[in-house]
Amino acid sequence: MRYVSTRGQAPVLTFEEAMLTGLARDGGLYVPETVPHCPAREIAALAGLPYEEAALRVMRPFLGSAFGDDALEAIIERAYAGFDHPARAPLVQLGSNHFLLELFHGPTLAFKDFAMQLIGQLFQASLERSGKRITIVGATSGDTGSAAIEAFRGLDNVDVFILFPEGRVSDVQRRQMTTPTEDNVHALAVKGDFDDCQARVKDMFNDFAFRDRVGLSAVNSINWARVLAQVVYYFTSAVSLGAPHRAVRFAVPTGNFGDIFAGYIARRMGLPIEKLVIATNQNDILHRALTGGAYETHGVTPTISPSMDIQVSSNFERALFEAYGRDGAAVAQQMDALKSQGGFTISQGALETLRETYGSGRASEDETRATIRALFAATGEVLCPHSAVGVKVAQDQPASAAPMITLATAHPAKFPDAVEAATGIRPALPSRMADLFDRPERVSAVENDLAALKALIEERRRA
Ligand SMILES: Cc1ncc(COP(=O)(O)O)c(C=O)c1O
Ligand SMILES: N[C@@H](CCOP(=O)(O)O)C(=O)O
């Protein structure tokens, strides 16, 4: 299995190389050269398997020869051993044809743990073999950062720097990043929004001298390995509702488009997904793009679902690459326009292709709060605001016989103020985090300035 860049000008890599590289050297994102097909009988055979076994079967064809079967099996076992729920990704029924896929039972209480716990193990195995050391620099709107820190804390051959927008993550999210004591972990509060943080990370990747000197690696979903790990739960949930004999739909709270693109890969592999519905908050660039054809940034607005306060949605580039028939030059042109003019228009052909796969919707702040309140009153299920955006948009979709599965992407206890305001209930953190607010914080406030950030990283990383 080989990986190519969405901009067509970077070296073709193996899985392991693409994982360690992160962003392609032409600024694009790696995608598999071909998407392996999973025949219906193999999809059906996933029914009833432990999550780990299903993960091995779904991901195996993408990894090539980098990790042997036994090694991969052990890696997957270790990755999910710290999850609080035996099913890892349990399904809860919300209504006659609507289900919630709970993805928040991992160590940091968000869906990011599914991928981050796995790639933490994959990186370690790979670095032990090569004897190399790396510097991970990630951008977060709240959840990727804590998941990355949890996966890489304390490792001798990895330094981790996480850029988060100052004052724009919840207190729980911030403390998850600022209270770990390991000296390879650095939480950086940037004066800016998530798009600024993500842009500075990409700038660092585009400075090849810096990139090579510090051994830069990415753990945002620009890294293909992140997306791959998220393909698995589309299979496990769809199969438990009757796939491959019955089609399903997914509503996916969306920001950087990594999670929903994992659903696209599952669909391309042969999983019968009728629609992948993009659910956005007020930062609705993706909904506007799908409905009107113009992908235009309007600036990031803070919301009660802060992890989705994103306008430059990195993985949409992967979707465009597919919609433009894998024309890297066309994608590069649009990405240049995004950088220089703040937007671009999607061609009619590409838009129609996107609409065959994706639906979309947007939830306002009031609708998000009302959905948390109504679902709690009707079922007792307490949603985080991101999951509530997903549920609201799912409820707004046209009727279909195919069951709708909404991804519940974070635990409500990460956003206690918003949840309490909607339900009167203040959700409690699991007991292993009960003292989170008593732990001392360690954080550096930094300007949104590339040179200053690079200097800080050079100074603090352990050579
Ligand atoms: C809780 C939560 N929900 C949804 C999203 C959106 O996921 P994606 O960026 O993969 O679209 C994020 C962040 O990415 C998140 O942290
Ligand atoms: N919502 C994310 C933003 C980064 O997304 P990623 O999936 O590309 O890492 C976060 O919580 O940090």
UniProtKB/TrEMBL annotation:
Class of this enzyme: lyase
InterPro entries to which the protein is assigned, alphabetical: Ser/Thr_deHydtase_PyrdxlP-BS, Thr_synth_N, Thr_synth_N_sf, Thr_synthase-like, Threonine_Synthase, TrpB-like_PALP, TrpB-like_PALP_sf
Sites of N6-(pyridoxal phosphate)lysine modification: K112
Cofactor: pyridoxal 5'-phosphate
Pathway assigned in UniProt: Amino-acid biosynthesis; L-threonine biosynthesis; L-threonine from L-aspartate: step 5/5
GO biological process: threonine biosynthetic process
Residue intervals of the Threonine synthase N-terminal domain: 2-80
CDD domains, A to Z: Thr-synth_2
Alphabetic keyword roster: Amino-acid biosynthesis, Lyase, Pyridoxal phosphate, Threonine biosynthesis
Top-level taxon: Bacteria
Catalytic activity: O-phospho-L-homoserine + H2O = L-threonine + phosphate
Domain Tryptophan synthase beta chain-like PALP stretches: 94-333
UniProt EC number: 4.2.3.1
Family: Belongs to the threonine synthase family.
Name the record gives this protein: Threonine synthase
Organism expressing this protein natively: Rhodovulum bhavnagarense
